[in-house]
Design a protein that fits this description.
The complex is a heterodimer of chains A (465) and B (93). Chain A is built from 16 helices and eleven strands. By secondary structure, chain A is of the alpha/beta class. Chain A has a domain at 7-240: Alpha-Beta Complex (Amidase signature (AS) enzymes). In chain A, strands 1-3-2-4-6-5-10-11-9-7-8 form an eleven-stranded mixed β-sheet, sandwiched between helices. The two termini of chain A are 13 Å apart. By secondary structure, chain B is mainly α. Chain B contains three helices and two strands; from the N terminus they run H-H-H-E-E. Chain B has helices at residues 5-14, 21-38, 68-71; strands at 77-78, 81-82. In chain B, a hairpin with a 2-residue loop joins strand 1 and strand 2. Classes of the chains: A alpha/beta (465), B mainly alpha (93).
Chain lengths: 465, 93
């Protein structure tokens, strides 16, 4: 586990004259031998073509990077782990993919995920679940479980996923790696297949905090191709990892303690809190009274946006097309045969939430709750530099344990959704083990506060990683 | 909020999905349970919902692919066109 060389070490070796293809080829061999179902597609020829163009002085020179199957890489399949996009190949590069290649990275392959990023276990993939490297009978989390597991298994040091309600932080926690959800708009969404556009954020995994900072530095920054992109300087995120936490005030979210959290998770979080205190931070409890309602709001808002975004998959322009005698029949057959059960469930839920007679009661109320949660978190972050809580109330759960109960599956994201609704940056960093499985501590920061998050995560990592 | 099988079928029609009767029964229970969970929002204090249309700048991508690159993604490509089944004369769904 975590056997791959760090991204920083690879870039340094390549800059010093090492064969720029050495690490990507080794990663490709590991990915081809993978038994966890991390990858949906590998293209050795594409890997070789990228190796040929590497600038050895670039910040990710020769670093293999795994890509979630909802990010566009020109000419490669982009299927969102869905049957409805069978045969579809991306017509352009996502901005993050172009930036990675410019930085010398080698796109290794496309990783498994819950279909259209809807899920918390990768069990909603049309191509079977990914398994957790720490215990193959358990889930790696989701929806970006393939990327998280690939990093945890030591196949590659960094990977990209996407967040809507916790889809990088939760698998990072369950797999024992670092996952960073940037501020909404900090990283371009151009070329990310939309799930819920007001929440979606391309987000990196790293084998450690500094590798996460390195890849984040490459992908972050303004992009005119994304109308929600923020025009703000990124700063030196790697240097921030050495800042420490002396003098920082960190709020322990009261509503994310106690009932419903596995005892081992609570114990690991206590260790992480102690590490922060020992390093000079002051910790105190803070209440976010509306945060327990975040998941209920998310259960309305995300499906509502998804039902609209996924209307484009109708058999006409992309991917799969069913046999049909009429246009109306083509739409229905293509979508019914192509979308899996969870996607169909969320489309139905979103269609309901936006329908006449119910939109005010459900959608507008959920929007009002999201606004309230944003206000409460922003106020708390006026008093504290960071907020602290578990990433997940449990360690990795067995495959199949929640597959028949959609609501139980949604509850896996109960602690990650508040930051998503508020558009705030948050990070999950390993802080120990419970029942022999990794536990992640979550830190949430103010808008554009990624540097402080990385600094605090580095302190926890140094003490407990 | 009770979502019965008939309502599931109605929603499926709006969403251009076909839900077999047996699945409609299962979905009615699942959707009802999710909406029962969501119902807690009705008793909670909320802020005013933000105004719609908060896009910050024009949705204008000068590097967006056009023409053949986009057409080629269709399974119904026919020369410079996309072939579709008959539209004129078909009955409304």
């Amino acid at each position: 586990m975590k056997g791959a060389p760090r991204a920083r070490a690879i870039a340094e070796a390549v800059a010093g004259g090492e064969d720029p293809g050495r690490y990507a080829r080794a990663a490709l061999r590991a990915a081809q031998a993978d038994t966890l179902n991390c990858f949906l597609h590998l293209d050795p020829d594409a890997v070789e073509a990228q190796i040929a163009g590497i600038n050895p002085q670039a910040p990710l020179a020769g670093v293999p990077v795994a890509l979630k199957d909802n990010l566009m890489d020109a000419g490669q399949p982009c299927g969102c782990a869905s049957r409805i996009l069978e045969g579809y190949r991306a017509s352009y590069d996502a901005t993050v993919v172009a930036r990675l290649r410019d930085a010398g990275a080698v796109i290794l392959g496309r990783t498994n995920m819950d279909e259209f990023a809807m899920g918390s276990s990768t069990e909603n993939s049309a191509y079977g679940p990914t398994r957790n490297p720490h215990d193959p009978t358990r889930t790696p989390g989701g929806s970006s479980g393939g990327s998280g597991a690939a990093v945890a298994a030591g196949i590659c040091p960094v990977a990209l996923g996407s967040e809507t309600g916790g889809s990088v932080r939760q698998p990072a926690s369950l797999c024992g790696v670092v996952g960073l959800k940037p501020t909404y708009g900090r990283v371009s969404r151009r070329g990310l297949v939309a799930f819920a556009s007001s929440l979606d954020v391309v987000s990196p995994f790293g084998v450690d905090v500094r590798d996460t900072a390195r890849i984040m530095s490459v992908i972050a920054g303004f992009d005119p191709g994304d109308p929600t992109s923020l025009d703000a300087p990124v700063g030196n995120l790697e240097a921030a990892c050495d800042r420490g936490v002396a003098g920082l005030k960190i709020g322990i979210i009261q509503e994310c303690t106690g009932e419903g959290i596995e005892p081992g998770v609570s114990a690991a979080l206590a260790d992480a809190a102690r590490a922060l205190t020992d390093a000079g931070a002051s910790l105190a409890t803070v209440s976010l009274p509306s945060s327990p309602f975040a998941l209920a709001a998310y259960c309305v808002l995300a499906p509502a946006e998804a039902s609209s975004n996924l209307a484009r998959f109708d058999g006409i322009r992309y991917g799969r097309r069913a046999e049909a005698e009429s246009l109306a029949d083509l739409y229905v057959r293509t979508r019914s045969e192509g979308f899996g059960p969870e996607v169909q469930r969320r489309i139905l839920l979103g269609t309901f939430a936006l329908s006449a007679g119910y939109a005010d009661r459900y959608y507008a109320t959920a929007q009002g709750m999201a606004a309230r949660i944003t206000r409460e978190m922003t106020a708390a972050l006026g008093e504290f530099d960071l907020l602290f809580c578990p990433t997940s109330p449990t360690v990795a759960f067995p495959l199949g344990a929640r597959a028949a109960d959609p609501l139980a599956m949604y509850l896996a994201d109960i602690f990650t959704v508040p930051a998503s609704l508020a558009g705030l940056p948050a990070i999950s960093v390993p802080c120990g083990r419970a029942l022999g499985l990794p536990v992640g501590a979550q830190l949430t920061g103010p808008k554009l506060g990624e540097a402080t998050l990385l600094a605090a995560a580095a302190v926890i990592e140094a003490a407990l990683g | 909020m009770q979502i019965d099988a008939a309502f599931v079928a109605e929603l499926a029609g709006l969403a251009k999905l076909s839900v077999p009767a047996a699945d409609a029964e299962r979905l009615s229970g699942e959707l009802t349970r999710i909406l029962d969970y969501v119902e807690q929002l009705q008793a909670a204090a909320t802020d005013p919902a933000p105004a719609a249309g908060a896009v910050r700048r024009r949705d204008d991508d000068p590097e967006a692919p056009t023409g053949p690159a986009l057409l080629s993604a269709s399974a119904g490509l026919f020369g410079r066109f996309i072939r579709v089944p008959v539209v004129i004369g078909e009955e409304a769904p």
